[in-house]
Amino acid sequence: MLEVKQVSKLYGNDRGVHNIDFSMQRGEIVGFLGPNGAGKTTTMRMITGYLNPTHGQIWVDGHSMSDNPKKARRKIGYLPETPPLYPEMTVQSYLRFIANLRDVPAREQKLRVGEAIDKLGLQGREKQIIRSLSKGYKQRLGLAQAILHQPDLLILDEPTSGLDPKQIIEIRQLIHELGENHTVLLSTHILPEINAICNRVLIINQGRVVLDERPEHLGRTMGETFEVSLEVKGPRERILHELRSLPSIGEVKEVDAPEAGAAAPAASALESLESAESATDEATDVPAVALSSAPAESVKLLVTSADRAEDIREALFFRLASAGLPILAMKRESLSLEDIFLKLTTDEPADTSKEEGDTDA
Predict the structure, then answer these.
(1) How sure is the predictor about 312, in pLDDT bands with cuts at 50, 70 and 90?
(2) Among the four 62, 147, 181, 260, which has the fewest Cβ within 10 Å?
(3) Angstrom distance (rounded) from CA 2 to CA 260
(4) Per residue in 219-233, pLDDT tens?
(5) How many domains does the chain have?
């Protein structure tokens, strides 16, 4: 659906974007991430035809943006960070105006406008002046204009920027539904949005693509070591012995290990309580009630695989089960998208040059 091949954008002697190269298949929702000034907006403007690349080629559904820009643009719906709305128009008149701009046939305009209003939840607001709409409904209207001509590719630049939590959830759901019939390139600074909506992640830094991967494969791509957090019930020394005797285990670390001598105050308190209860029972001739024994100790651990990629959860389960040591909790630890984003965008020295015409800065 979209092919971006070795695309660069020069501003004087400075490079805004350096040999960007990626493609998107039909039905994909791709999250496009990067710090301010990384080149996201410049890249999206080149894809949509608002800027011409200095080098490289862009194809949309087989149409070259440089050779057949009109045909390529017809395949694209674009929602910039600030929706291109006319505040003095009504919702319905604005969408009819956009339909004319997009060369939607006159006989289909009423149907297309009605479908867009229904899909974006704008029913009952057709006659409302745009300036009186809330920020959330303005974003909905911006999405409506982007899909009105039934494009195959949607380019969305910060579609949830400035919205309240309820509006963000609503717009995310709308984008997810749009992804059923459209290919979507979504630029955002809200990283949880990528996990909630996207099935692929592109990260750009200093004008270059530094990561192109599916969310579930990010840890493997980053060479992440397989780590498991455990909570096990039983004697501490025995648990540590069992784990460290496994050949597949590389390292075992205790989490929140009790400090030396920490148990003594608890024992003293228990003895005091027993003495007080004994004295009370003797004074009142009430039979003493035996105190229940203290709960068995549980130990929290972080366990690392000896082989960076080996899944050690099954081996842990069988070893501890055979030793009669119940596992109360087991969870694989992995790098979050936030961790990966920071690692990829802070390892290199920052580029202080500004991209002309790039509101991403």
Answers:
(1) confident
(2) 260
(3) 62
(4) 565 556 778 888 999
(5) 2
